[in-house]
Amino acid sequence: MKERTNREQSESLLSSYAEEQPVLTRQSKIGLVLEGGGMRGLFTAGVMDVMMEHDIRFDGIVGVSAGATFGCNYKSHQIGRVLRYNVRFKDDPRYMGLRSLLRTGDLVAAEFSYHTLPNELDVFDVETFNNDPTEFHIVCTDALTGEPVYHRIDHVNDEELDWIRASASMPLVSRPVSLDGHLLLDGGISDSIPLRYFQELGFDSNVVILTQPKGFYKKKTKLMPLFHLFMRKYPAIVEAMSRRHLMYNDELAYLEEQERQGNILLICPQDSLPIGRTEQDETKMRCVYAMGRQTGEAMLPAILTFINKK
What pTM was computed for the model? Predict the structure, then answer.
């Protein structure tokens, strides 16, 4: 009862707020930029669900890694799906875990997670995705060059689901995915927060959702000995991982600059999220999702103002 009361109060406040705002015609394309972070992406899912519940639409979405696997549900209008299937299959060895890694080379099982699950068990709404006009872009990394590969998905089929898988194929615990002449791995290796990419496409104003709090500063990974040992077939990936912290921190500095100029609205958790990248504890998953919802609800007036002024 308390939850319903709070939601009713929120909707009443938003209704009053909307009535006070002038009706404006948008002159520029509005984008939604989603970084990755594995299960930290449940924070992003919570924010997105709140925005979907209030029918906030974007001209385009670009997602990296978990931002791609979770972000596609915005274009398919499937509120709650991200949390639902992660909780439902958290203990299923067909989904993800050490067993899958040892058997297939993929921590997240490719066939089950990217084909059986969305096609049969928690069905991804392909028709809605295909008919929605929102552009949907993802970022991968070429395992042979270490450079980002950008891909737009307009119509979902099995091959496009593999593009989404490629975007989230974390090095060390995933096999490279062969698509369109590339061997692909996680997009976060080469372009963790692809704001510049979206701006180059004409998305002048962007809402950016991060899964780390403000003030976060990435340090060089301590796993470099493992990269040198297990990724020696892909020296460009080893090199990219050795300087990933520099790339990421440069992108954070660019976000700060763009925020000061009013070109982006930045949404991020207040504190570090209490969940590991591959952790599947249900209590923690629900907590992180709830943190995202709370942040989304608190940011709704700012989101509406940012979108309407453009």
Answer: 0.91
